[in-house]
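Protocol step 4 of 5: obtain the predicted structure for the target chain.
Materials: sequence only (see below). No template structures provided, no constraints applied. The aim of this step is simply to have a reference model before the mutagenesis design in step 5. Sequence pasted as it appears in the construct record:
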Amino acid sequence: MGRVVLVTGVARQLGGRFVRRVLREPDVDRVIGVDAALPEHDLGGAEFVQTDIRQPTIGKVLAQYGVDTVVHMDVNGTPLGSRGSRTTVKETNVIGTMQLLGACQKAPTVARFVVKSSTSVYGSASRDPAVFGETTPVKSLPSGGFAKDVVEVEGYVRGFARRRPDVAVCVLRFAHVLGPCTDSPLAEYFALPVLPTIVGFDPRLQFVHEDDAIEVLRLTAGQPRRSTPHSGTFNIAGDGVLLLSQAARRLGRPTLPLFSPSVTWIGSVLRAVGITDFSPEQIRLLTHGRVVDTTQMRETLGFWPTYSTAGAFMDYARSRGAGLLPPEALARTVDRIAAALPGAGQN
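Step 4 output (structure tokens):
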């Protein structure tokens, strides 16, 4: 009998891609995909179970299939498509994770738990260190949005690891995942025809390509080699950094520097152009940036990303097409932003 892998969040593109990839592993017998929404993409030979991880029924699924490996990918910053709300997303992230961990605690067959976390746990602030390691103390914990969700999720995962020391637990803190299929607030931001920025700041950013995200999830969900323990917390990011100004130039998009540091003010700009889930924490990222150390990813996990930060960004940029708009369309967009925020200037 091969392994039985349960994957949450399979209605999203990244979850669906991971399911199709892990199905090809020679030691995997069955893959169970779980989501509250029906996937619009093919899951290959995986068995789909439509259930909400916020409900106790997830425990019955673990027991019914004798699951030994759980890959928790249903931790996200935005609703799926046009469905749901920020409240629903938070409940799925936090309450859903609690319910899933409670079910795993009671399931004697579960031997490995992998969670897709985020470097958002470190927050973004002016007094942050230049580079965050996995054990770097955080000076200011995120106060809201997806970043706060992730802090809570990781707290519950640590509690589960203490209660079930027999389970190998791996937390992957991903930098922002980018690629042709990316669905995230930052991807939506970069898709804007004009990028609002903060006057006086040019933050350093890191990215990981969605192909590399799939591969490191596959690696950590697999049976570890004797020399490669797949337990613990790991930062996952491509080599190097990009300044926000460099990203804008590579996209071929003009920037719109804003003179006020007000989070509320900037948030109204983004809502005016269609981004409704851009939280204050994400705006702080575009002010102060964030860079993480990936030494443990390489030396302990033995994982070397195929794409650098710049390479991941360029592949995303190519998938979005040309950045420059016709003059009249660009003018209309700038007028919408200016109407929402008087006093904005354009470079």
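Step 4 remarks: The first helix runs from residue 13 to 22. The CA atoms of residues 2 and 29 lie 4 Å apart.
Proceed to step 5.
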